[in-house]
């Protein structure tokens, strides 16, 4: 899953990005409102964590702009604990949830997971298909009762595919959800990772649509 983190604090931003990456997310960091607004319009993110106190353009104005453009990406806003009016304004502008600073990273992760489940109409943190189970809380994958050992990139790839069962996913879509913008990547490496995943979880779970991409599970 790919996350846009809009946070200008020079200590908090990189710290959160590293923490989210450790939990299997590909994260792009924007440190001002103008960059955040532009990135959020690229239609490659699954969720935005948006600080309202951004320089150049406030997070609230960025959120209003997205919603006016019919951009319905899930947005979790970060606000100062005392700024109750900001929280009200954020919800009125179209925020899906908020978190007060200072906060524990664990709470942010739980709230993000809940928003992503809601956006994907997913009831629990566990994804299941054809004898394969992926638990987003523990980042574990079980196949026929046995745990499957995956690298971080393999896990991100599989999680994205399991969130989109039956959909044809292009190489570009997959690579955008495997890496953040600071990582050198090539869509051709998707073939290599698909090959490794097939060996680990079963080749029958990932089908190739020649000239189009890949499909996890049965078509919807």
Characterization of the model:
It is a single chain. This protein has helices at 12-22, 33-40, 59-68, 84-93, 105-119, 152-163, 171-176, 189-201; strands at residues 2-6, 26-30, 47-51, 75-80, 97-101, 126-129, 132-135, 140-143, 146-147, 168-169, 206-209, 213-216. By secondary structure, it is an alpha/beta fold. The strands form three sheets. Strands 2-1-3-4-5 form a five-stranded parallel sheet, sandwiched between helices. It has a four-stranded antiparallel sheet with strand order 6-7-8-9, covered by helices on one side. β3, α3 (59-68) and β4 form a beta-alpha-beta unit. α2 runs parallel beside α3 (59-68), α3 (59-68) runs parallel beside α4 (84-93) and α6 packs across α8 (189-201). The radius of gyration is 18 Å and the shape is elongated.
- Helix run count: 8
Class inferred from helices and paired strands: alpha/beta
Biggest beta sheet attributes: 5 strands, parallel
Instruction: Give the N-to-C terminal Cα separation.
Output: 21 Å
Residue stretches low in confidence (pLDDT < 50, at least 5 long) are none
What is the spatial order of strands in the main beta sheet?
2-1-3-4-5
Strands, total number: 12
Give the name of the CATH architecture of the largest domain: 3-Layer(aba) Sandwich
Radius of gyration: 18 Å
Question: Could you give me the name of the CATH homologous superfamily of the largest domain?
Answer: Response regulator
Named CATH topology of the largest domain: Rossmann fold
Calculate the mean pLDDT score and round it: 89
Highest CATH level, the class of the largest domain: Alpha Beta
Number of domain modules: 2
SSE pattern? EHEHEHEHEHEEEEHEHHEE
The level of helicity is 25-40%
What overall geometry do the principal axes of the alpha carbons give? Answer: elongated
Residue fraction in strands: 15-25%
